[in-house]
Amino acid sequence: MNPMNIVLFAALLYVLMGFVAFLVYGEDKRRARLGRHRIPEQTLHTLELLFGWFGALMAQQVYRHKTRKQPFQMVFWAIGVLHFLVLGVLAFQLFSS
C-alpha cells in the first residue's frame, strides 16, 4: 500500500472518530446538566482509543467537561501518549525508507 494512502486513511479515521467523540462528549455534558443518566467513562475512553482522542481533547476544552476529574484525565492522557507513540512509529516506518 502506498504510504500516502495510509496517511490519508489514518487522517480520515482521526477526523471521523474525532467528530463522533466530540459529539458524544457534548451529549454527556448535556445529560450531566439535566441530571440524566450519563455516558459511561469506559465508553468515552473507548472512543478515544478508536481514533477519537483529538476530538475528545477539543470537546473537553469547548464543553469544559471532564477536565478536573484526575483519574479520568490520567487515563485520557495515557491514551493520548499511546496515540503519539503509534503515530511516531508509523511515520518513521513509512517515511524512513
From TrEMBL:
Q: Which domain of life is it from?
A: Bacteria
**Pfam families, A to Z:** DUF1294 (PF06961)
Q: Where are the transmembrane segments?
A: 6-25, 75-95
Keywords on this record? Membrane, Transmembrane, Transmembrane helix
Q: What is this protein called?
A: DUF1294 domain-containing protein
Can you name the source organism?
A: Deinococcus cellulosilyticus (strain DSM 18568 / NBRC 106333 / KACC 11606 / 5516J-15)
